[in-house]
Amino acid sequence: VQLVESGGGLVQAGGSLRLSCAASGLSFMSYGMGWFRQAPGKERELVATINWSDDNTYYANSVKGRFTISRDNAKNTVYLQMNSLKAEDTAIYYCAASRGYGLKYVARQYDYWGQGTQVTVSS
Fold this sequence. Notes:
Oligomer: single chain
Order of helices and strands: EEEEEEEEEEE
Number of helices: 0
Structural class: mainly beta
Shape: globular
Strand content: over 45%
Helix content: under 10%
Largest sheet: 7 strands, mixed
């Protein structure tokens, strides 16, 4: 199983980025997907998660209204559209896959992880 993130980078506050996570080696539609992030000196936290059928999502309060998670099951890819970025969004962002059909909110519920992509927001 491989999860490969892309789309990170350096952006000014108020800008946007779109992260992508391409999955291979798993039955993508059998997995809920999540985006986590980890800033230096902080614990990894859930940013957003989406169920297998793209009809149920959850967002952390800190990103609600600014970030959108979506998935394309035909392309085995999950996305995170990030708008109105803030300096506090700076972190390494990880894609993760959780077997099963419900939403999963805790890191230990996820079975596979990507290597992460750095997002840096300058103020």
